[in-house]
Design a protein that fits this description.
Radius of gyration: 19 Å
Strand content: 35-45%
Shape: globular
Structural class: alpha+beta
Oligomer: single chain
Order of helices and strands: EEEEEHEEEEEEHEH
Strand order of the largest sheet: 1-2-5-4-3-6
Number of helices: 3
Largest sheet: 6 strands, antiparallel, barrel
Distance between the termini: 44 Å
CATH topology of the largest domain: Elongation Factor Tu (Ef-tu), domain 3
C-alpha cells in the first residue's frame, strides 16, 4: 500500500525488451536506501516489485498487462518518474490509501497558472479520463495521478460533445517535487481512483441484488 506522497523523482536508466514484457531500471537514491529483493516501489503510481538492486538503482519487470493498462510502456531512457516506497506500519497516512493498481490512463487537456503576482501560487490542471472512472470522483475527493495523491476540484461526466474530465490544483511544492510540473497538453498519465469508492459501489450493488431477490421470494 502507498499514500500518494511522492518521495523523489527518479530517472529511467535502462529498458530491456523481453518480448511481451520489459525490464525497467530506475535510479532513485532515496527509495533504494532500504530496497530489498521483493520490495514494492510505486513508479508513476504503478506498484512494481524490485528484482535487483545496484548503485542507487533498482530493477523491476513490467508485464504485458501493465504495459497495456498504464503509461509505463511510453517511458524512454532518461525520462523522470515519480517514486514512492510502500508505506510502513505506524507511519502517518499523509495522502490517501493508494494501492498502486492503475485503473486507467488519462491525458492532460490544459493547464492554467494562477494570476498571482509576482509568481503563480498554483496551476490548475484539467485531465481527460475514461468515462467509466468518472463515477468514482467527487469534488474534494481524492485521485492519484502518476502516483501523486491529489484533491479533485471539479469533475464532469462525458457528454455527446465532450469526454469526461476532472481538474486539480497543484501548489509549487507538488509542481517542483513531482513530474506533474513538466506535463504538457496531450501527455498521458496513470490514474487510480479511490478504492473506498469502488468498495461502496460493490456493496450497494450487492444490497440491491439481495433486495430484488427478497422481493421475488415474497
Amino acid at each position: 500500500m502507498f499514500t500518494g506522497l511522492v518521495e523523489e523523482k527518479g530517472t529511467v536508466t535502462a529498458i530491456e525488451s523481453l518480448g511481451d514484457s520489459v525490464r525497467l531500471t530506475v535510479c532513485g537514491p532515496l527509495v533504494t536506501t532500504d530496497a530489498e529483493h521483493g520490495a514494492s516501489i510505486a513508479v508513476n503510481g504503478c506498484c512494481l516489485t524490485v528484482t535487483a538492486q545496484g548503485n542507487d538503482t533498482f530493477t523491476a519487470d513490467v508485464m504485458a498487462e501493465s504495459l497495456d493498462k498504464t503509461s509505463l510502456g511510453d517511458l524512454r531512457v532518461g525520462d523522470e518518474v515519480n517514486l514512492e516506497r510502500a508505506v510502513a506500519v505506524g507511519q502517518r497516512l499523509g495522502g490517501h490509501i493508494v494501492q498502486g493498481h492503475v485503473d486507467g490512463t488519462g491525458r492532460l487537456i490544459d493547464r492554467v497558472p494562477s494570476n498571482h503576482q509576482p509568481e503563480p501560487l498554483w496551476d490548475l490542471l484539467r485531465f481527460e479520463m475514461p468515462s467509466d472512472l468518472a463515477r468514482y470522483l467527487v469534488a474534494k475527493g481524492s485521485i492519484t495521478v502518476d502516483g501523486t495523491s491529489l484533491t479533485v476540484v471539479e469533475v464532469h461526466d462525458s457528454t455527446a460533445d465532450e469526454s469526461a474530465w476532472f481538474s486539480v490544483s497543484l501548489i509549487p511544492t507538488t509542481l517542483a517535487d513531482t513530474t506533474l510540473g513538466t506535463l504538457t497538453p496531450g501527455d498521458r498519465v496513470n490514474l487510480e481512483v479511490d478504492v473506498l469508492a469502488k468498495h461502496v459501489e460493490r456493496l450497494l450493488a450487492q444490497r440491491d441484488i439481495m433486495h430484488r431477490e427478497g422481493d421475488t421470494h415474497e
